[in-house]
Amino acid sequence: MNRILGSILLITILLSGCAAPATQGVEARDGWMRPAAQGGNGAVYLVVRSASADEITSVSSDVAEAVEMHQSTMSGDVMEMHPLHSVELEAGKDVTFEPGGLHIMLIGLKQDINPGDETQITLHFRNAPDLPVSVAVQENQP
């Protein structure tokens, strides 16, 4: 009888290792922004990765009147910035928000953002739960 129970337990443990990984996991890392003055705008940069296909539908923050996702592109000799309604996330692939490309704009800052501060933003997704992110304020890109 003990051998049968032991065999069942062993099979259960082995089969549990075959379970599918979590499909809702989203992570954000390397968040940073440059200092900015109250009333002005600031840009947030970070890297986002999702375990499954998803979409960032919006971003929010208490430090700004509005928060938007933007894409910067060159048009001839002029850098143009276009607002985005959402950003697609492919399963297991990094999406990089960086200077001169995809970024998050904090519009109408409610306070000065100084070097050494941490600013909070929240990423909102189509499928995954909201993700609060701490963003380091520093003069230069890490």
Query: Uncertain spans, ≥5 residues at pLDDT below 50?
Result: 4-23
Q: How many structural units, i.e. domains?
A: 1
Radius of gyration: 21 Å
The CATH homologous superfamily name equals PCu(A)C copper chaperone
Write the layout of secondary structure elements.
Blueprint: H1 2-16, E1 26-33, E2 42-50, E3 54-60, E4 64-75, E5 78-84, E6 87-89, E7 94-97, E8 102-109, E9 118-125, E10 131-137
Outline:
Helices cover 11% and strands 51% of the residues.
Describe this structure in words.
The chain has 142 residues and is mainly β. The protein has a single domain, classed as Immunoglobulin-like (Sandwich), CATH 2.60.40.1890. 11% of the residues lie in helices and 51% in strands. The protein is built from one helix and ten strands. It has one helix at residues 2-16; strands spanning 26-33, 42-50, 54-60, 64-75, 78-84, 87-89, 94-97, 102-109, 118-125, 131-137. Strands 1, 2, 3, 4, 5, 6, 7, 8, 9 and 10 form a ten-stranded mixed beta sheet that branches. The radius of gyration is 21 Å and the shape is globular. The termini are far apart. Residues 4-23 have low confidence and may be disordered.
